[in-house]
Amino acid sequence: MIKKLFLLFIFFAPFTSFFAISSWLRIPVVINQVLFVFLVLGVFIHGKVSRKWILKEDLLLISLLFVVWLSFLFGFKEQRSFNHSLAYTNSIVFYFFVSKYVIQFLNIKAIEVLAVIYKSFLLCSLIIIIDFIGINYFDFSLRRIYAPVVDGKISNMNYFIRGEMLSVAGVAEEPGHMANFYNIYFGLSLCYIYQKKYVKKYKWLIGLFILSQIALFSSAGIALSIFATILIFIINKIEKFSITKIQLAWIVGLLMVFFLGLVILLSFKSETEFKQINSIIDKITFSEEANKVTKVSSSGQRLYQWTRALSNFVKHPVLGNGPGYGVNEDTEGYLSVYFTILSDVGLFAFLFFVSFQTILLIKVIRLKRNVRSFVLFSLITSFLHLIIIADFYQAPLWILFVLIQLIYKENKLPNT
User: Fold this and answer.
1) Residue 20 half-sphere exposure, CB side, CA atoms within 13 Å?
2) Alpha-carbon distance values, 149 to 123, 210, 337 (Å)
3) Coil, strand, or helix at residue 168?
4) Domain ranges of the chain
5) Which of 286, 320, 387, 393 is the most buried (most CB within 10 A)?
């Protein structure tokens, strides 16, 4: 029963809007909580406690969680702050550590988890494509059936207008979130069919991916998938020149930092030196100027929120202003996981989280080449997507973290 619940949690992890009961009781949360109860009962009944399942890098997440609650105690301490502290706790304790413990407790292999992710990816693709065709050509909507409440709590939108078409959000709240989950599950699905040697399925899977990305019409989702593909190609080419794994990790890390810096720089310079470049990027990514009345989450609005985040960070750099402060001050929030952690919870929490990500990046770089390429796609797209979305607590991201550790354990190169 525990294993079935765990795999069910993996399958429905992207379903943050479909089948949601409330803003807090989304289907992955419900399944995960039931899983935890059954796990505790299973451990108690069998009297079996797994040991040595916490890795060194996991201590960074434990430290992060400790700082979150310290920040809450010394922050603005309102109900919203407590709720956000619980969200951090749920992500780290239940999504990450409970998943790790279940895998250790039941000796679940990576290929079993990847198989479920592959099936989930196929279902998500089917829903995205059917919903896109239905709403644009037949006045039929899956979202209105399975995610009917549009109040800013369960779902942020029904459909976005993109030119003369409507873009869909799949099973998530909006296209950007769905694109992030979709990119994560796409890379892991490729990893699955590679390990199962389903060579003929590559073209079908890639075809589904392209069609679904068009239906989602997420600028970040499309751009990051292209960027990740090019970067992985470059990495594989560079590797032939006998570069060490550590050097390769540094190259990838620096490229990601460069990409982040470029995004911020172009935003800050949008009205001066980079005006022409920014206008081209706006056309490619379907961006627009920020609306001061509606505060639409465009590139201009992100700049405003990032500037606000840095301004608030300077006021309380060590422990931040308290979990949820950015959203409490402005309902838009900081529109970035990294800026949210930095400003809300402080510098130490930010460093703990980024250090944990860096260790995972190094582990992926040390994987066997073919497996590495697929996992690296999921890692690059998700890590960079966190720059422009503020959802720290989404299950697919934490499932990726757990899987990277498991895949590394099973597939790492000798002497690494």
Assistant:
1) 26
2) 22, 29, 26
3) coil
4) 2-411
5) 320
